[in-house]
Amino acid sequence: MSEENQVLAEVEKANEAIVIAFNEAWSNRDTDTLLTLVADDVTWMVYDGGPVYSGPDEVEAAARPFLAKFERVDFKILRTKVMGMVTMHERTEDYYAPGGELDTHWHVTGLLVIKDGKIVIWRDYGIPGAKSITGPTVTQK
Q1: Is the model more confident about 19 or about 5?
Q2: Torsion angle of alpha carbons 20, 125, 79, 74, nearest 10°?
Q3: pTM of the predicted structure, to 2 decimals
Q4: Which residue ranges form the domains of the chain, and what is each CATH number?
Q5: HEC profile of the chain
Q6: Fewest C-beta atoms under 10 Å: which of 34, 87, 102, 116?
Q7: Average pLDDT value for the chain
Q8: What pLDDT, in 10s, does the model give residues 59-88?
Q9: Distance from C-alpha of 10 to C-alpha of 15, rounded to nearest angstrom
Q10: Backbone phi, psi, residue 56, to 5°
């Protein structure tokens, strides 16, 4: 393997590890860890056409109270593709309301751009034709 290919392989392996840590932070409802993974200039598009949050403070203000609503969250990565600093992963997200019942199920593609070990772009897109359920806990203020 050429030196150039070796460097690329190392970057891609590190970026895939960030994707895994990102998904684990959501599953653990661990906003503190999530914030260690994002850059100071991160932008997060929650869903296609949805709100966009800029910077760690806005990410925290949106993510922390959202995750606190749930008893349990389960993110499952179905497949991942890493190309340099661009990572894509298909995942399901299951959110369980207090009491343990499934409240929400989403099937999405996450696009993360990672520079210098931090997520700078975070966008989620729905999977066409996939079954999604948005329950009442998600929509509560």
Answers
A1: 19
A2: 50
A3: 0.92
A4: 3-139 (3.10.450.50)
A5: CCHHHHHHHHHHHHHHHHHHHHHHHHHCCCHHHHHHHEEEEEEEECCCCCCEEEHHHHHHHHHHHHHHCCCEEEEEEEEEEEECCEEEEEEEEEEECCCCCEEEEEEEEEEEEEECCEEEEEEEEECCCCCCECCHHHHCC
A6: 116
A7: 94
A8: 999 999 999 999 999 999 999 999 999 999
A9: 9
A10: -60, -35
φ, ψ at 79 (rounded to 5°) = -160, 155
Give me the residue label for tokens 């690329």. 8
d(CA 102, CA 51): 24
Q: Residue 94: which region, alpha, beta or left (left: phi > 0; alpha: psi -120 to 50)? A: beta
**In one letter, which amino acid is 85?**
M
Token duo for residue 40:
């100071």
